[in-house]
Design goal:
By secondary structure, the protein is mainly alpha-helical. It has helices at about 25-30, 40, 60-65, 75-115, 115-165, 185-190, and strands at about 5-10, 10-15, 20-25. The chain folds into two domains: about 1-70, no CATH class; about 75-160.
Length: about 190
């Protein structure tokens, strides 16, 4: 939104500009605010000392409302926010997958160098466990990544549809065309 104003009202905030306004209740804001801030969870919070002291800080409010575009509703804002959260989680899952992959490579090297049967057996079990964890991390990453891609595709499809769906005059603007309109006489004759 251009020239956006964030206005505190009663028990929430309103983001407004000349085109539209969106009102969010403090309860909704608390779900993403200082108590469960995504910035804090990712080590990016500029105010770590504020955690859980206020509903939502100004930085998070500005970030949240920066996702709003002209014509958006509160639902569109939350959709964009949750897609953003899912994208962050995809990055974390992929980092976990890569970390496990490196750890497995090191353990496989250690297993080759290990000559004790007791130590190698224990190391082999740990290696199997790590491989299962790696596969689970990969599955979670793939599934979440697929969810993000599909969600983004829905947003893009909706935007393309909105841009290209100028109303056409007359019958072309109808959602369902009744092809029987011209043949009403024939339909009446068949009923008899």
């Amino acid at each position: 939104m251009t020239d956006t104003n964030i206005i505190p009202v009663g028990n929430g905030l309103v983001v407004a500009n000349q085109d539209n306004s969106i009102r969010l209740h403090n309860t909704e804001l608390a779900n993403v605010g200082c108590g469960s801030c995504v910035m804090d969870a990712n080590g990016q919070c500029p105010h770590p000392d504020h955690a859980k002291k206020q509903v939502i800080c100004d930085d998070m409010t500005e970030f949240l409302f920066s996702l709003v575009e002209t014509g958006d509703t509160a639902s569109a804002l939350w959709e964009k926010y949750h897609i953003y959260i899912a994208r962050l989680e995809v990055s974390k899952d992929y980092q976990d997958y890569k970390r496990l992959q490196r750890k497995i490579a090191l353990m496989e090297k250690a297993l080759k160098n290990c000559k004790e049967e007791e130590g190698s057996e224990q190391l082999s079990r740990k290696l199997d466990d790590l491989k299962m964890d790696k596969n689970a991390a990969k599955l979670w990453w793939v599934k979440l990544n697929q969810h993000v891609v599909l969600s983004l595709q829905k947003v893009v499809d909706r935007e393309v549809k909105d841009k290209g769906s100028g109303r056409m005059p007359g019958i072309l603007s109808a959602k369902t065309i009744n092809f029987n309109l011209g043949d009403s006489k024939k339909i009446e004759d068949k009923k008899c």
